[in-house]
Amino acid sequence: MESRRLVLIARENLSELLSAVASAVKVDWQPKKEALSGTMCTVGESSFNRVSVPIAAVDAGAEQAIREVMQAHSGANLVAYALKAAHKVSPRLVVFDTDSTFINQEVIDEIAAFAGFKKEVAEITERAMRGELDFNKALAERVLLLKGVSAEVLPEIKRSRLSLSHGASELVESLHARGIFTYLLSGGFSFFTSAFRRDLKLTGDFANELEIVDGRLTGKTLGAIVNRQRKAELLRELATQHGVSIAETVAVGDGANDIDMAVESGMGVAFCAKPALVNAVNAAIFERDLRFVAELAFA
């Protein structure tokens, strides 16, 4: 068991949240006093209460108890939380999932709309992100339905159907100002991740490549699939490449395909995520604003 710090960001008074945590993990706190030690943080035009409190002797049972309390209080009051190392570690490498994390949409669903299979593909996507299906098989099944779609629709989809998650640009700008490396590690497609990389001047991107022959999608991908295992491998490789320790990494995602990289990283963040990821990591953001990543990472 090790000592940790619990960072909470909420709209209102934190004493009720702290009382719930104290009851769940049996810590000797004075919640009202601890709440008064918090400070205000500003995200965009809104202000929030933030507090960082120590918790001694945290084991796996305590981690799960804290997750359950956080999920029970998410939404109305709690905006974000992180159970962090007792000593402060500043991140030097931040990696993001793309679909439904860095952007608001699932790209493959939007391509499928052009093929007339959006409903079918979206259902498979949802089950895959919940961890109910093998990711590689689910991807192959969905991509096959895209066979024959003109490659000319890809730029139009990027232009008219995809949007950055709220706060993405501001977060990236803030991270770059601190000299932090930023990457997209995506189970989606390289045409789109490379475009977003160029738009925001990210350090790099890794994703699956759609095979195109005679100007049309073939229904196949090229090369190794960027699945949950590959994302974790990439995180380790990038950390080594940039001389960054794993403790200095942050991984942000929303689904089962992000579990391995999130657990591997110094701080894995579940961003408006599926339960499979929320229950695997010790940090979560419950409001769709990526700027809260920085509020947790640098607390």
TrEMBL record:
GO cellular component labels: cytoplasm
Pfam family for this entry, one: Hydrolase
InterPro entries reported for this sequence: HAD-like_SerB (IPR050582), HAD-like_sf (IPR036412), HAD_sf (IPR023214), PSP (IPR004469)
Pathway: Amino-acid biosynthesis; L-serine biosynthesis; L-serine from 3-phospho-D-glycerate: step 3/3
SUPFAM superfamilies (alphabetical): HAD-like
EC number: 3.1.3.3
GO biological-process terms attached to the record: L-serine biosynthetic process
Key words of the record: Amino-acid biosynthesis, Hydrolase, Magnesium, Metal-binding, Serine biosynthesis
GO molecular function: L-phosphoserine phosphatase activity; magnesium ion binding
Cofactor: Mg(2+)
Family: Belongs to the HAD-like hydrolase superfamily. SerB family.
Name this polypeptide is given: Phosphoserine phosphatase
Organism: Turneriella parva (strain ATCC BAA-1111 / DSM 21527 / NCTC 11395 / H)
